[in-house]
Amino acid sequence: MVDGDRVTEFDLELGGGRRLRVYDTGGSGGDDRLALFWHHGTPNIGAPPRPLLPAAAGLGLRWVSYDRPGYGGSTPRPGRNVASAADDAAAVADALGIDRFAVLGHSGGGPHALACGARLPERVVGVVSVAGLAPFDAEGLDWFAGMTESGAASLRAAVAGRAAKERYEANAAYDPEMFVPADHAALAGEWAWFEDIVGPAVAAGPGGLIADDLAYVAPWGFDPARVVAPTLVLHGGLDRIVPSAHARWLAHRIPAAELRLREGDGHISVLSGAEAALRWLAERATSR
């Protein structure tokens, strides 16, 4: 019996001086449970979401994740785009002997989860994007509409290029107005877990965050319409960081997508629907 709450960490050397810090709730021997790759937000490290570990274990899911390049224990990958996540996820899966797997991303992790679905169609059996962005060049979408002033300013700096983004981050301050009251309540409860993964993500500087934001506003390297696995787009109707219009656009674009809009939730409180999303994923992924 595998202890689904136990997370092991190791460094995966990829060659060329690159390294990924990997997290795994798998057992020491063979583990035939469905692997669920967690793609973390910006700025976070990749430790799997502790509030969801018991539910995942009960569903027979094995969490696998990694720090995106430039965060935590992972070395930078200069010039990375969103599609690069598929290469890194595949390398981790190969190292662990995992053939097929599901993916779940929250916030900035949403696009990276979609990248895996689009670029690894023979391996990815299910996708969940929670509070995730649509591509910057999404046709018909007013990309910045509904974002808080601080959030839009941060991403507009990325549009202006690396130097502008670096200048912005040198003076950036936390804006509590990016979160709605439901988000603040979630952050004061079980999702206080985010305090454990944000600090380590920026401890060595904002390099990972800058690389993420530059990737979000550049060509992603894939079209979400290429995601063929069953896909759940979960979003809060009150989200001020990634407005729900992004979710509607994605759900319309992805052929096998289902939109689940939680009208009273914001960017963090929407994770109260994550256990139901895990059940959705387990049911559909295991049937493929």
Report on the architecture of this protein:
With 288 residues, the chain is α/β, with parallel strands linked by helices. It has helices at 53-58, 84-95, 109-119, 149-159, 162-170, 181-188, 194-202, 207-216, 245-253, 274-285, and strands at residues 8-15, 18-24, 34-39, 61-66, 101-106, 124-130, 231-236, 257-262. The protein has an eight-stranded mixed β-sheet, sandwiched between helices. α2 (84-95) packs across α3 (109-119), α4 packs antiparallel against α5 and α4 (149-159) packs across α8 (207-216). The protein is globular, with a radius of gyration of 17 Å. It starts with 7 loop residues before the first strand and ends with a helix. The mean pLDDT is 95.
Keywords:
alpha/beta, globular, 288 residues
Write a short abstract of this structure.
With 288 residues, this protein is of the alpha/beta class. It has ten helices and eight strands.
Question: How would the blueprint of this fold be written?
Answer:
Elements: E1 8-15, E2 18-24, E3 34-39, H1 53-58, E4 61-66, H2 84-95, E5 101-106, H3 109-119, E6 124-130, H4 149-159, H5 162-170, H6 181-188, H7 194-202, H8 207-216, E7 231-236, H9 245-253, E8 257-262, H10 274-285
Parallel strand pairs: 3-4, 3-5, 5-6, 6-7, 7-8
Antiparallel strand pairs: 1-2, 2-4
